[in-house]
Amino acid sequence: MSEYLQRPVQTLSGGQEQRVAIAGALAEACKALILDEFTTFLDESDQLLPIDQS
Which InterPro entries match (predicted)? Predict the structure, then answer.
């Protein structure tokens, strides 16, 4: 994710924006996350990544 740190949001693809949003949500210290179709814009290879690491 560090490769996205210095990039303007407008230069990110839809999938990259989604990954940043997921990472931000997971970084919050909340007790529950409600995610609806959170893998929609991810590449096929990345769609299982958030699930595998939960």
Answer: ABC_transporter-like_ATP-bd, Molybdenum_import_ModC, P-loop_NTPase
Q: Give 26-53 pLDDT, tens digit per residue.
A: 788 777 777 777 777 777 777 776 555 5
φ/ψ region of 36 (left if φ > 0, alpha if ψ in -120 to 50, else beta) reads beta
CB neighbours of residue 10 within 10 Å: 6
Q: Rounded distance, CA 18 to CA 46, Å? A: 11
Q: The whole model's pTM is what?
A: 0.56
Helix/strand/coil (H/E/C) assignment for every residue in the chain = CHHHCCCCHHHCCHHHHHHHHHHHHHHCCCCCCCCCCCCCCCCHHHHCHHHHCC
Boundaries of every domain in the chain: 2-52
